Amino acid sequence: MTKQFRLENGLLKIGEIAKELSINQSTIRYYTEIGLLPVVETTESGYRLYDREETGRRISIIREINAVRMNLNQIKMKLA
Fold first, then answer.
1. What is the pLDDT along the chain (80 residues), one digit of tens a residue?
2. What pTM was estimated for this model as a whole?
3. In the CATH hierarchy, which fold is given to the domain comprising 3-79?
4. CA-CA distance, 62 to 29, in Å (whole number)?
5. Are strands 11-13 and 48-51 parallel, antiparallel or unpaired?
6. 46 Rama sector, left if φ>0, alpha if ψ -120 to 50, beta otherwise
């Protein structure tokens, strides 16, 4: 899969999505581990790929919910 193909299809590596959404890569990894962010695909090299729109939507929701001080389990239930 080429970079151009990935970008045309809205699939971003963790560093790309972190930069685009102004969030730490470690935060994305953590949210992925606890089930808040889905990995769409994994490359042959082991890179996790995230859907640009879905990940952006979920991060936006997480930020809004965090603003009203909900914990991550409550956030997870809202995203389900």
1. 788 888 888 999 999 999 999 999 999 999 999 999 999 999 889 999 999 999 999 999 999 888 888 788 888 888 88
2. 0.79
3. Multidrug-efflux Transporter Regulator; Chain: A; Domain 2 (1.10.1660)
4. 14
5. antiparallel
6. left
